[in-house]
Design brief:
Number of helices: 2
Keywords: Membrane, Transmembrane, Transmembrane helix
Radius of gyration: 22 Å
Number of domains: 1
Region (Disordered): 1-21
Shape: elongated
Mean pLDDT: 80
Transmembrane segments: 26-46, 52-72
Low-confidence stretches: none
Length: 106
């Protein structure tokens, strides 16, 4: 699985590019999922064999479903990271002097 780096939250250009790339990944995941599910259904319906070929087909079909699951897992994880990073507030050094600082009591 390819590791995607997160953009800097202060850069609007990097955040916009990251959101666009995430949207592209979601679209490709939808297309990939629909093609894989169509292929699985077609193989199950049209395969009229038993024995070794049936076992091989079941292994290949299960691998296809695992690939779909892995694709969606990476899309969801990347989307969560992107949403969390966009919600982060600026740190105390970056806060404007006129903004009130939030103190946390331990």
């Amino acid at each position: 699985m390819k590791r995607h780096t997160l953009p800097e939250p202060n850069s609007r250009k990097q955040m916009a590019r990251a959101r666009r790339k995430h949207t592209e990944r979601v679209v490709f995941a939808v297309i990939f999922t629909s093609v894989e599910l169509w292929a699985v259904v077609a193989a199950v319906v049209l395969l009229e064999d038993d024995g070794v070929l049936a076992v091989a087909a079941s292994v290949v079909l299960s691998a296809a479903l695992i690939a779909v699951w892995d694709t969606w897992q990476s899309v969801v994880v990347n989307g969560r990271a992107l949403r969390l990073q966009s919600r982060e507030e600026p740190s105390a050094e970056e806060a404007a002097p006129d903004q009130a600082m939030k103190l946390v009591r331990l």
